[in-house]
Amino acid sequence: MSVPDTHAGQPRKAAMAAWIGSALEYYDFFIYGSAAALIFPEVFFDESDPATATLLSLATFGVAYAARPVGALFLGHFGDRVGRKKIMVFTLILMGISTFLIGCLPTRDQVGTLAPVLLVLCRVLQGISAAGEQASANSMTLEHAPPHRRGFFTSFTLSGTQGGQLLATLVFIPIAALPEEQLMSWGWRVPFWMSVAVAVVGYVIRRKLDETPAFEQQAATEGVVKLPLAVLLREHWADVLRVIGGALVASVSTIFTVWALSYATSDSVGMDKSSMLWVGALANLVALGAIPLWATLSDRIGRRPVFLAGAAGSAVTMFLYLWAISTGSYPLTLLLGIVAFGVVYSAANGVWPSFYGEMFSTRVRLSGMAIGTQIGFAVAGFAVTFAAQIAGPDGDDWSAVALFTAALCVPPVVAALSARETAKVPTEQLGERTVGQAAQPAKVTA
């Protein structure tokens, strides 16, 4: 039995909704990263101890990643029960509201220690939202995509995150250039207030998107799974572990985006804030083009080799990038930043949405992606805090941070080497425990 094809044109609509929604969602998420590195140590923490203030500020960046696994359990469950579309709308609105509230928070000088407490609470809401965003958008695009172009279409979710990061960086460049008094009083709040537009635009875009034919067929024939987590852990536990290991590659992004920015603009290196923000902006601009190209290549030669190239290559290029920062040479830093983040990291970043999603069947896909990625991303989020400690009391031991980042690239390599190649597997056979044999469906409930 099959569901009639009433979804003509939906693959492009789903990809665009994923791109725009993820861009808007991760605009919110990444402006926090920039503020945590440049603004919040002075606004929310004790200025008399700059090193500790920076460490605590970077720790609040990681708090959202700690909240992500909890959000993944909740949103993954309902995403496999009620559909991808409703979760996509919910996560976007939650992110917009929580980010707007950050821009309204009182400072430490105004309310004392209550200020960082409120900041952490808003950050937790951001983390819960992000937990369901990528998994629902990836599931939506994968299930709408033509079988031979799943890599290309699902990559739009990650192109969107890079677009959001680019937008966040471009917004912060003029903000960072404000006079210090204006920057610390009201200037830093403006990018957060703009999240009102995020919620409105995101809602309009996503509410018009159809549910996926794969989910509708699952619901109409076998029914939806009553307890997706139970089925996931029984039938796909090894793939969940692979996704957790693979997701550690996101540490490259958080180290590049937050710790390297903090290090480059510290007294030990002394690079200009606006100039370093341009490194991130240009690297993300290159990534916007590189991600769909890597994804298209994975449709031809497979997910595993492209992902492996990105994960292993990032271990090397991030070492070179941090070394370039240590020299104080801006041209060298710009060049290697673009190579490391814009080109090499994009290979893994552009392929993982299809690579991970194809490991699971429709009935538990959103749960599998959400839980697996968010546990791995939680480690990646706190990688910034660990890096700040590893860098020593002066925060300038870049080589230790480079080795730490390289070590976090090892589990993704192992995960990819142990995974099945799924690029050529028909969509309806994805998630079967033995590719090419009929799947044994779990007991489901309509």
Automatic annotation (TrEMBL):
Pfam families: Sugar_tr. InterPro entries: MFS_dom, MFS_sugar_transport-like. It is found in: Cell membrane. It comes from the Bacteria. It is a multi-pass membrane protein. Coiled coil: none annotated. Keywords: Cell membrane, Membrane, Transmembrane, Transmembrane helix, Transport. Its main location: membrane. Residues 14-424 form the Major facilitator superfamily (MFS) profile domain. The chain crosses the membrane at residues 26-45, 51-75, 87-108, 188-205, 243-264, 276-294, 306-324, 330-348, 369-392, 398-419. This is MFS transporter.
